[in-house]
Amino acid sequence: MPEIYGRLMDGMTKAKTVLFDELGGPEVLRLTELEIGEPTTGQVRVRVDAIGLNRGEALLRAGSYYYDAVLPHSRLGNEAAGVIEAVGSGVAGFAVGDPVSIVAKPTDEGMSEHGVYASRVLVEANRLLHRPAHIDAITGAAVWTSAFTAYGALVEVGRVRAGDTVVVTAASSSVGMAALQIARYLGATPIAVTRTGKKADRLRSAGAEHVIASDNGAVAEQIRALTDGKGARIIFDGVAGPGLPDLAGALAPDGIFLVYGSLDTRTTPLPMWWPINIYGYAVFHVYADTERACRAETFIVDGLRNGALTPIIDRTFDLTEIVEAHRYLESNQQAGKIVVTVRH
Q: Could you please report the per-residue DSSP string of 183-204?
């Protein structure tokens, strides 16, 4: 074990941790210090250096996620990067001093019990990915949830191929930008749909061939015009809501409509009378299959290494600024990922 980690571990059992005791806005979040102790069987303790924020965390905090927060003392967060400080029994393949990323895995309690908004966390070893030398902590906290979601939907389900037209809604989100990059990496033509034209330049720099502002209306008509009336083969949608049937009209016959998010929380009607395929998609589709997860990790690491995939970091906050970070997350001003860093 490296000497520096042996010194750091002496007496180190506390962690600054973000908790909330009631549902509400960002102001319900509080930073406190908790005893975390040593890892048990199958666990590791990770010194967290960076945390990636995701929309689902704001929804859980507000009480509008697909499962309920366990109150009081609920935690938050699925995605982080850091360095292993201690390893429990039964853990193979990881050692003290290893740089790692922490990714989401489905559990009964979810992030309420296993959240990673903290300076140190105990996590199951099966939530870890080795972090190669060319991936720093901020990148390691920003890339996985977004890229896994986009990869799983577009590659494993959509089977994107060169020449396809791929429409990406909520395109300025971190998942949307990852989807634009992956589509272009595979030789497809990415069309970004965003609420206004203010982020058009950033979306084009992220890989979009065309940018459509939904505030201008007639989104399906614009997509059909850009595809010479053929329609898109794939729509990757993070919005859902009552506008879904109109958007589905921009699909080519037998096209694939992949819904991974519901920024519009109103009821989503299904256009069942059209010859299209609609999938409700979640990132756990990737994690649930070992071979699928290995393919995804290889694809993403290769893309990061050759520059085809680069997580867009919109802004960073310190852990002590978690309330401000959540306010910014909900402002919809960002283009890309929001990352919280941890000072030690």
A: HHHTT-EEEEEESSGGGHHHHH
